[in-house]
Amino acid sequence: MSAARPFTALRTLAALAALPLLLTACGYGSESTDDDSQTGVAADAKKLSADEVKIGYFPNLTHATALVGVQEGLFQKELGGTTIKASTFNAGPSEIEALNSGSIDIGWIGPSPAVNGYTKSDGKNLRIIGGSASGGVKLVVNPDKIKTEDDLKGKKIATPQLGNTQDVAFLNWIAEKGWKVDAQSGKGDVSVVRSDNKVTPDAYKAGSIDGAWVPEPTASKLVADGAKVLLDESDLWPDKKFVITNIIVSQTFLKEHPDVVEAVLRGSVKTNKWINANPDAAKASANKALEKLSGKALPAEVIDPAWKSITFLDDPLASTLDTEAEHAVKAGLLEQPNLKGIYDLAPLNKVLKAEGETEVDDAGLGTE
């Protein structure tokens, strides 16, 4: 994929204002629930500048840093006497609304809703303060109908929602192959069918779609139903890395409670380190958290391949967010936004330096 040019203008398409555009990477609805899986606070633990920090994330594997960090008490350990209140969300817009209203202070979220939330508020509501995950997106297809990429022509391929992260990626991939598809209707050389991830497996089994460009664990659920992986999106990116989950914070909370933000980032860095050092234990922890939240754990044939395709890291991979936004512009779903200032990586780099880790770059989109 080509590198994106710097963004200079700030406008979102008025015609798209009413659409749930540029949503989460893994949207499953819009409800939020409290996650009561966090561990307790020691009686003698010292509070930071806030009594409580409210965090939000999705009950998805691509948000495993939050799932595991809460489940294992790794965030709470860094927060001391400041309690952590966790809520889970099923769609990007509801999490952004919660951040704007103060219902949460810090959130794990996909690149597209982060960009959308930032541009819609004229850069006043959030900052991206860290990365969490890369990868975990695949093009899976019916092997009886599609054996090569060229066989996609004339077929029906699902994406989670108009303008969401995977939808934009698929439209860009189609364009790079020289095929034509109308972004709004999804009609063209390939039929792009917008289908909620929770119903896509049923649509595949019913034969109403021939494949899907989707995140995990939906991709592995389809494979368990007989689909085959035709393409891993990671193969399209330099170093096979692209952002799928960011950490965002309310600008107000960042200004008023920098010590709390730093503690959460410290917890995130240590959680990612533990996940990478203990992949099997971390996978089991994430699945246990998912079971608590959804009432059902993922079976081994789904979670095992899904987990392997996700990389957990602290780097927000800022240049790839820039590129993903540019793909939305090329698809006609977004006019070029000014993303300067969307990142504030100073707190993360402070934590990384203290941990002896390599500092990360904001690709020129930082606050300075």
In short:
With 368 residues, this protein is an alpha/beta fold. The chain has helices spanning 64-71, 74-79, 92-101, 111-120, 165-176, 200-206, 218-224, 251-256, 258-277, 279-294, 300-308, 318-330, 346-354, and strands spanning 32-35, 52-57, 83-89, 106-109, 126-135, 137-141, 156-159, 191-194, 211-215, 228-232, 243-250, 310-312. The protein has a seven-stranded mixed β-sheet with strand order 1-3-2-4-11-5-12, sandwiched between helices. A five-stranded mixed β-sheet has the order 8-7-9-6-10, sandwiched between helices.
Structure notes:
The chain has a seven-stranded mixed sheet with strand order 1-3-2-4-11-5-12, sandwiched between helices. The protein has a five-stranded mixed sheet with strand order 8-7-9-6-10, sandwiched between helices. Strand 7, helix 5 and strand 8 form a beta-alpha-beta unit. Helix 1 packs across helix 9, helix 1 packs across helix 10 and helix 5 crosses helix 12. The chain has 368 residues and is α/β, with parallel strands linked by helices. The radius of gyration is 20 Å and the shape is globular. It has 13 helices and twelve strands. The two termini are 27 Å apart.
